[in-house]
Amino acid sequence: MKKTIQIENKLVGEDQPTYFIAEIGINHNGSLSQAKKLIDVAVECGCDAVKFQKRTIDIVYTSEELARPRENPFGTTNGDLKRGLEFSEEEYSEIDRYCKEKNIHWTASCWDEASVDFIAKFDPPCFKLASASLTDDNLLRHHRKYGKPIIISTGMSEMKQIEHAVEVLGTDDLIILHSTSTYPAQLEELNLKMIHTLKEKFPVPIGYSGHEVGLSPSYAAIVLGASVVERHITISRAEWGSDQAASIEPQGLKRLVDDIRAFEIAIGDGVKKVYESEVPIIEKLRRK
Question: pTM for the complete prediction?
Fold first, then answer.
């Protein structure tokens, strides 16, 4: 049985084009104009969706964590940084309008229930759960109340925790992404064979969320059967921010998406045949 689900106007899963998510995340550094530039990059490179991150700061972080000293573009504390990276409802309304204009899906990883309710107002085609939220049962259930497809990442988790999350969410309209939550992740810790393991274990589309430097593991993930690929994107890895080093610049993103689309053409159907283009070669080269 084919493992496919519908995300708005796109089928995602086995024997379907790779659903490529360009994660903007917090790489906009609190700038709406920078977010729009990154949306433009995703559109120009042929991505299917862009993704942001949404947090209710005073719920997700303790007062002690927010007060921790941390020099950043917005101030001197971790709280200054976290608040500076959050977009307002007005800014998200503009993101929603802009993505519709550019004909690209957008969604967000919501780290708390209030953030789910906030993003739900924009009627996203799906929700994304970050690896850090995989063990938050109440947050998983809260996402389900909106009846949207859900994509979960599995970094920082053992199989028993993934199994429990799937038990909580159910398998309807679910996509599971293999991931390693180090920024950037080391090659020896990517464990891409987990894509096979997850495909054998769960009756849902399986994908890959990569945080490594370079492109080759993302190609390999497709060959191993990933139906979805998610990569962080940036204008320049030299920009300020904790996720920039694990992100892909525009030229790399274009190359990655183009090569994935070429692979989708080249993979074929697995049925051996003689192509018409080979017939004159047969006549020329084959002796018997």
Answer: 0.96
